[in-house]
Design a protein that fits this description.
This protein is mostly helical. The chain is 76% helix and 0% strand. The longest helix is centred in the C-terminal third of the chain and has 31 residues. The protein starts with a helix and ends with a helix.
Length: 518
């Protein structure tokens, strides 16, 4: 009888998702209704649902989850400001004079935006609106334009600080601990955000290198598809770049990225602390876009990033308790950073740019909360129908052992990526398939990186990839859907090759975390 209810659960979930009803409500409602029906026929113990409040509260108060709003806020400030446009424009001016130069600039800026905003849809919109007109005017291949922008704009799935990796950390860590306890290991080492960020760095950079090499090959073999692009200013003249302009456009975002990632990877700050630093830095960078402010305000805001670096350095050196000098330096850095951040907040609030970002952040976090509640309900009902044992037996009895089990799980995740967002996939699939795989000895960091790369590939794959729909909304009419599909296929093949390399060489995902933390 349990098997029939599990089949009904899967079918009803699929139909509910395809109906267009918000996935969070489907995840809450369908399992709850089936649990009630199951209790009437003696197939489900409603006492299991008594654990729902405590499990949901535990997930929502997890420090890892609490960092998500701050990272979203960081991306929101950068998105609403002129920073992204200036980054794209400056990189285009630096590289555009050569064949393929604008495409190279888009890949590099896409990687920087991925490491600073992590908001994939917004990144594709920005890249499309700013770069497409100049590339079309220069005679770029329409398919190459579509492929480069969609692929580069989706790098936020894998390059940290990716929200996907942050959400994945909690679920992978819980699955790893459950799987290891099942084989008698009662003290497994928890998986941290730093582990996944470090594990994703090499695969993410490898993807960037693959994209750049592909563009260089196209520029060599078929230069007519990617001719030089001249970036012109508002008066129609060729823009002249100064060192100060380039530094503000590219160096400041890079410093912000180094502060956020470096503080996590070095173990100096938790994910929440580094996210707070990132949000403060993004707020200041957005405020600095105002060219009419007094000089003293600009200097105080410019001092925020050095102040943050001082705080990180003091904590890395042992904290303020180590010496009086470190305490003085740390206090000075805190005062400078706080003063500049409050000034930036006041200025942005007066300009009415804070509340729109805050509302978008609150909306996204509310959606995440509903999904967590729904996934918690689904997990409890699935276990109540003994689904966990069935999945474990199925995966462990597949011919080919661990390899086949991982391939099967990856195929399921890839297909689910066509119809639901990565957040739902993480909270649905990992609690179900994760513990049996961890019980078989699968490395959690390697498995998490495979999942993130798989979801990124699903995000791009025609005809249902979300990135393609994002680009379609911003692309001009002369770029057809067929152009988009033709352009993205080579990049999907590159991603598949990168995924295969990480699958065959786990050290690409596990070497850096072990080097840093062991």
């Amino acid at each position: 009888m349990h098997e029939q209810f599990l089949i009904a659960l899967g079918v009803c979930l699929l139909l509910g998702i395809l109906s267009g009803v918000p996935v969070a409500f489907i995840l809450i409602g369908v399992p709850a209704v089936l649990a009630m029906i199951g209790s009437l026929v003696g197939a489900f113990d409603l006492g299991i649902l008594a654990a729902f409040p405590s499990k949901a509260f535990g997930l929502l108060t997890n420090p890892i989850f609490l960092s998500v709003p701050l990272f979203v806020l960081m991306g929101g400030f950068l998105e609403k400001s002129d920073i992204a446009r200036r980054m794209i424009w400056t990189a285009g001016a630096l590289f555009g004079d050569r064949n393929g130069g604008m495409a190279i600039a888009i890949v590099l800026v896409g990687a920087l935006l991925a490491a600073s905003t992590g908001v994939i849809g917004a990144t594709i919109f920005m890249l499309g609106m700013i770069a497409v007109p100049a590339m079309l005017q220069a005679g770029y291949s329409k398919s190459l334009i579509a492929g480069v922008i969609c692929a580069s704009g989706s790098l936020g799935q894998i390059i940290p600080p990716s929200i996907l990796l942050i959400l994945l950390t909690d679920q992978i860590s819980a699955a790893y601990q459950a799987g290891r306890r099942a084989v008698g290991d009662w003290a497994p080492t928890p998986v941290t955000v730093g582990d996944l960020f470090a594990g994703a760095l090499l695969p993410g950079l490898m993807l960037v290198v693959f994209y750049l090499l592909y563009i260089l090959v196209i520029a060599k073999l078929n230069p007519a598809k990617c001719p030089p692009v001249k970036m012109l200013d508002s008066s129609g003249d060729r823009q002249k770049l100064t060192r100060g302009f380039v530094a503000q456009a590219l160096l400041m975002p890079l410093v912000l990225i180094l502060i956020v990632l470096g503080s996590i990877l070095m173990g100096v700050a938790t994910a929440t602390e580094s996210a707070a630093l990132g949000a403060a830095g993004a707020l200041v960078m957005a405020a600095l876009e105002n060219k009419d402010m007094p000089r003293w305000r600009k200097l105080l805001m410019f001092a925020v990033l050095p102040g943050a670096l001082l705080l990180v350095a003091v904590k890395f050196a042992g904290g303020a308790q180590a010496s009086v000098l470190l305490a003085i330096i740390g206090t000075f850095g805190l005062v400078v950073m706080s003063s500049g951040t409050l000034l930036a907040l006041w200025q942005e609030h007066r300009a009415e740019r804070v509340m729109p970002v805050a509302r978008e952040t609150a909306s996204l976090v509310a959606m995440l909360v509903l999904i967590v509640l729904g996934a918690t309900m689904l997990s409890l009902v699935f276990r109540g129908f003994h689904g966990e044992e069935l999945v474990r037996d199925f995966l462990q009895n597949l011919p080919g052992g661990v390899t086949t089990a991982i391939v099967f799980t990856m195929v399921v995740i890839f297909l689910l990526g066509f119809i639901i967002e990565y957040v739902e996939i993480i909270f649905i699939v990992i609690p179900i398939a994760g513990p049996p795989l961890m019980e078989l000895g699968v490395d959690p960091v390697w498995f998490a990186i495979l999942i993130s790369m798989n979801l990124q590939m699903s995000f791009l794959t025609p005809p249902f990839g979300y990135a393609l729909f994002y680009f379609r909304r911003v692309a001009p009419v002369e770029i057809s859907t067929a152009d988009i599909y033709r352009g993205i296929i080579p990049f999907v093949c590159l991603q598949l090759a990168a995924l295969a390399m990480v699958a065959m060489v786990p050290g690409l995902a596990t070497w850096l975390p072990r080097l840093i933390y062991n």
